[in-house]
Every structure is written in structure tokens, then in C-alpha cells.
Specification:
Blueprint lengths: L22 H21 L10 H5 L19
Length: about 80
């Protein structure tokens, strides 16, 4: 994210548990974490068209439904 992309509603809260970081160190931390988040969010977009799974491809070779009108008495002797 660049400074131009940040809205007024986007606020970052940092709680320092140990040490005494300078303002520049905190700004660098926020910049690095914000960039990593923006890259992850951009990579997490769903594909436009769903890809056929291996399960869907393998169902192509299954036999069709049984024909109920034929019946079992065809081989009577």
C-alpha cells in the first residue's frame, strides 16, 4: 500500500511490549507489514473460471444409468 491508497478509516495500532523503538523503527515495521499484507491479499483472489477437479474428470468414464424399460426377462429359455 502506498500512502495514496490509505483511507482515513485505515488505522494501524501497534502495542510495544518490550524495548523502546523509535518512531522511524515503528514506521518501518508498519510499512513492511502493510506491504506483505497487500501482496498476500492480491495473491488470494479467486480464479474467474473454476477448474475441473480430478474427481470431476474421472467421472467421465463411469457407466450411464440403467435402462429400466429393458427388464430382466430377456434371456428366458
Amino acid at each position: 500500500m502506498t500512502g495514496a491508497e490509505i483511507d482515513a478509516g485505515d488505522r494501524v495500532t501497534v502495542e510495544v511490549l518490550r524495548g523502546n523503538p523509535t518512531d522511524e523503527e515503528l514506521a518501518a515495521l508498519v510499512a513492511v507489514v502493510s506491504e506483505a499484507y497487500a501482496r498476500e491479499a492480491a495473491a488470494a483472489l479467486a480464479e474467474d473460471e473454476p477448474v475441473r477437479t480430478a474427481w470431476a474428470v474421472s467421472t467421465r468414464t463411469t457407466r450411464g444409468p440403467l435402462r429400466r424399460e429393458v427388464g430382466w426377462g430377456r434371456f428366458g429359455g
